[in-house]
Design brief:
The protein is of the alpha+beta class. It is 40% helix and 20% strand. The structure holds 2-acetamido-2-deoxy-1-O-phosphono-alpha-D-galactopyranose.
């Protein structure tokens, strides 16, 4: 990965001002899909791919940022009430961070910043949340402000809404507070992150379907529709929250057939799968963990209808190659599958995926599309001076 400090100097010139670097990792959700926004626990890992931001504080309120070649330089004034710019523009993520910080602590000094990433965008690895997290930490540092995990979680999911996705808090929590070698059991009511050690010989791959799910485009409406259907089902049944309803397994019968009922069934069953997956991980029961991933995929495919022929094929190819489980990860309709196997089978699973899924795709790049997803530390626990 290019050194963002070099890019900072190349773009904005040398300066006597202090330069800092912050970074935030992407994440792979192991299980617990489309339930974080209903306040239910999820189990992601932070991965070792991340967004790094080198920056210097300015004496005015200008925010200037440059990113790798395909995203051009951006510049705006950090005013108290920021509005989004054109949909799909990467500046919106910078604005989202500034708006989130500004709403809680007021607008402050701007920055000159260079952003570098080895996280492929629009791949279900949460590069957009990682960017918002990293840029938020940069703005706070530039203004010499320290924020706790809880304070950051108050502002970050809201900040992402600014970009148009009514997401949950999973991505930000995982990117901020995951622990090296552990999955993160994230609870939202109240907020808590419990590190669950991943058994030594468990391996995960993030395998890209080679179809992107552009969250700022059409996939956003699909995402928001699932959220609305799940919420409508809960309302129709007269429950205040999904946390109460998962203890009432027969409630679905009272719902008319359709997306509402299917969403309800997905959410409630997925919550139970998360519980079972944590147990399986704690016991080192790889077979059970793998089966839960497959059940999660089937539920996302058949009930939420968020899989795609490509993702189904990818999951199948993984299983035929010796994986113990696989499923689409993230919002769905493209992006990645998470593939689970034991360490001795990893090379065969990789080779099998390449032969069964990626052969004949000239765009396939193993460094971007078939990523080792071992659990790394979140932004708040990274012990390094970059
Ligand atoms: P992706 O599509 O990977 O960014 C989104 C949400 C998550 C969660 C998952 C589905 C955002 C920023 N992220 O993830 O909170 O709801 O979908 O489980 O909206």
């Amino acid at each position: 990965m290019t050194d963002p400090r070099q890019q900072l100097v190349q773009t904005f010139g040398p300066s006597a001002a202090e330069t800092w670097v912050v970074s935030a990792p992407g994440r792979v959700n192991l299980i617990g899909e489309h339930i974080d926004y209903h306040g239910l626990p999820v189990l992601p890992i932070a991965i070792r791919r991340r967004i790094r931001v080198a920056f210097r504080a300015r004496t005015d309120r200008r925010i200037r940022a440059v990113s790798t070649a395909q995203y051009g330089p951006r510049e705006f004034e950090w005013t108290p009430r920021l509005a989004p710019t054109a949909a799909g523009d990467w500046e919106n993520y910078l604005r989202a961070a500034a708006e989130a910080v500004g709403r809680k602590w007021g607008a402050g000094a701007g920055v000159d910043a260079a952003v570098v990433s080895d996280l492929p965008p629009a791949a279900g690895l949460s590069s957009s949340s990682a960017l918002i997290v990293a840029f938020t930490l940069a703005l706070l540092q530039a203004n010499r402000r320290r924020a706790s995990f809880e304070e950051l979680m108050e502002i970050l999911p809201e900040g992402e809404h600014f970009v148009g996705t009514r997401g949950g808090g999973m991505d930000h929590a995982a990117s901020l507070a995951s622990r090296e070698g552990c999955a993160s059991l994230i609870e939202f009511e109240p907020l808590a992150l419990r590190p669950i050690p991943v058994p030594e010989d468990w391996r995960f791959l993030a395998a890209h379907s080679l179809q992107t799910a552009e969250k700022s485009g059409a996939a956003r409406d699909e995402y928001n529709a699932r959220r609305a259907a799940g919420t409508a089902a809960l309302k129709r049944l007269g429950f205040a929250s999904y946390r109460i309803v998962i203890e009432e397994p027969n409630s679905a019968e009272k719902l008319p057939p359709g997306l509402e009922r299917d969403s309800f069934l997905h959410v409630t069953s997925e919550a139970l799968r998360v519980r079972a997956a944590v147990k399986a991980m704690e016991l080192g029961d790889a077979g059970a963990f793998g089966r839960l991933l497959l059940e999660s995929h089937a539920s996302l495919r058949d009930r939420l209808r968020l899989s795609s022929p490509a993702l189904d094929h990818l999951v199948q190819a993984a299983m035929q190659s010796g994986a113990l489980g696989a499923r689409l990860t993230g919002g769905g309709l493209g992006g990645c599958a998470v593939v689970f196997c034991k360490q001795p089978d990893l090379a065969a699973v990789r080779r099998g995926l390449i032969a069964r899924y990626y052969a004949g795709h000239p765009d396939f790049d193993p460094g971007r599309h078939l990523i080792d997803a071992q659990p790394g530390p979140g932004a708040l626990h990274r012990q390094e001076h970059e």
